[in-house]
Each structure stands twice: as structure tokens, then as C-alpha cells.
Design goal:
The structure is a homodimer. By secondary structure, chain A is an alpha+beta fold. The termini of chain A are far apart. The longest helix of chain A has 10 residues, at about 50-60. The first copy, chain A, has a four-stranded mixed sheet with strand order 2-1-6-5, covered by helices on one side. Chain A has a two-stranded antiparallel ribbon with strand order 3-4. In chain A, strand 1 and strand 2 (about 40-50) form a beta hairpin. The first copy, chain A, has helices at about 10-15, 50-60, 145-150; strands at about 30-35, 40-50, 65, 70-75, 85-90, 95-105, 120, 135. Chain A has a domain at about 10-105: Ubiquitin-like (UB roll), CATH 3.10.20. Chains A and B meet through helix 1, strand 1, strand 2, helix 2 and strand 5 of A and helix 1, strand 1, strand 2, helix 2 and strand 5 of B.
């Protein structure tokens, strides 16, 4: 694979040019937000390292770096919940990515079974009393036990 | 301010309950994606520490942690580009936030002058030749020199 990333030389180059010069953090990662290309909903927040970004550009299917499994993660390889990439955006200082995707299969992206990982809302306003999250999806789209079997849960305490 | 965050005890509590038990990373931060509540477009990616999340919940205006300035950042305090929060979502493992906001003033969120920080697209497909980013906004919404004056540019190489 040729190196497709440019060296970062100036602020103007990074912000105003058409050169792809991404910046990965001290762990070699950048945050990636993924939205449903049809509804605009945010589906998930993930991370990419250099290889995951290259694979996403090359294949048109979303790849991430799994921080819990510490490996390249072709989304859907286990679950079938493949994300077809319709657009890849990079931000002003080129240290984060926005993927617009179409969902295949179960039309879901969340390992808990919901369509979006962001299925709960924090009420705005009074912080003097206990905050209760509100569920924004009425029911799960799939049964995670059927899809993932006994694969370890990626959520860490 | 009372402590509004619960201790993280079990995966089930974190994923399936209505308790707010957020997880900040080793730097005390979590990534935050901000979308335009009207258009669904992703405007920016930022970070929140505990205080920024609390302030956002309490005031209904977006607060972030500025990694370049190393301080609490009330978005719009300098530029006037206030973000009125319509919805705060938290993800399955409670380590990232999605803010849906309405823009006031210039209807822009990007310090370079564009409406969205994600004003450039990476073409999907051939990585054998040089990648050219494509600009997706025709022109800037405002002149950053007029809005920010000689404030230091937050973009780091």
C-alpha cells in the first residue's frame, strides 16, 4: 500500500488545502463519528488508526480500531452489520472523521441491540436532583445474543 | 454542585439502566460530536471533561474542554457562535456524547469560517494515486479574522 497521507507542514496546508494530512493522537488513533446517510442520526462513535482509515477509503466499508479487542475491526465481520460508506469527511485540523453510511442487514449499529448506540438522552436543566436517562428507542432492533453469541462484551467499566 | 454522576458498577447498569455513569479517558476527557438539530449535519467534534458535561447539562449551552488552550470552553463566548442544546445523548458504554444544537448568530461552528468543521470530503476508492480532498461548502460563512481577531489559531501541527 502506498503511503496516502501527506506530512503536516503548515496550518494553512492542513485547514485550507486539498491535501490529506491526518493527525492521529498519542495512541495512534482519531475519533470517528458515524451517521446514517438516510436519516442523519448518529449511529456510533469509534476510533480509527492509520490502517483503519486506509482500509475504509480503499474498500468503502467502515473499518475501526477496536480499543477493547486491540485489533483492526471491519464493522460487520462478526455481526453482519456492515456499514457501506457513502461519504468520508475530515475536519478542519484533520484529527477526526465523519462517516456517512448505509446499513445493510439488520439496519443496526449497536452491540446492545439498538439501531444507534446513542439510545439514551440526558435531560437538560436541573442538576440538583438525580438525573434519569430517557430511552429514545422503544425496543431493540435485534437480539445481541443471537448475533454475537458468547463473544465478549466490549463495554469496560 | 452536587455530584450528578453515578459510580460505574456493572455492564448492565451502564448499558441498560437510566443511571448516568459516564466514563472519561486517561486524560479525563470524552469525545463529543455536535450536530445541527435542524439539518442533521455534523458540525464539529470536541471533547468534554466532567465540568464541561455538567455545565452543558445545567445551562443548555454547549461547553467543551479546549485541548489547545487547556481550559473550559463555553462555545461562543469569544465568537458569539453560541450552541443552544436541544438534546444530549450518551452512548451504550457511556464514554461519548452527541449534542444536537441550534446555532445562534452566524449559523456557523468552525473557526476556519465554514458552517461545519467537516467541509472536506475524502474520495472513496482508489488509493493508488494522490488523494485530493473535495470542498463541500462553496464559501465561508464568516471571516474568521473579523470574529476572532488575533486570537491564536487552535489548529496544531
Amino acid at each position: 500500500m502506498t503511503d496516502i497521507f501527506k506530512e503536516r507542514k503548515t496550518v494553512e496546508q492542513v485547514e485550507e488545502s486539498s491535501e490529506l494530512a491526518p493527525k492521529f493522537d498519542e495512541n495512534g488513533l482519531m475519533p470517528v463519528v458515524t451517521t446514517d446517510a438516510n436519516t442523519g442520526d448518529v449511529l456510533m462513535m469509534g476510533y480509527q488508526n492509520e490502517e483503519a482509515l486506509k482500509k475504509t477509503i480503499e474498500t468503502g466499508e467502515a473499518h475501526y480500531w477496536s480499543r477493547s479487542r486491540k485489533c483492526l475491526w471491519h464493522k460487520g465481520a462478526t455481526s453482519g452489520l456492515i456499514q457501506k460508506v457513502k461519504d468520508i469527511r475530515i475536519d478542519d485540523d484533520q484529527d477526526s472523521i465523519w462517516l456517512k453510511v448505509e446499513l445493510k442487514g439488520l439496519e443496526a449499529s449497536c452491540h446492545v441491540g439498538y439501531k444507534s448506540c446513542f439510545y439514551r438522552s440526558i435531560p437538560v436543566g436541573n442538576i440538583k436532583q438525580d438525573i434519569e436517562l430517557k430511552f429514545k428507542e422503544d425496543e431493540k432492533t435485534f437480539d445481541p445474543n443471537e448475533v454475537y453469541g458468547d463473544a465478549p462484551n466490549p463495554t469496560k467499566l
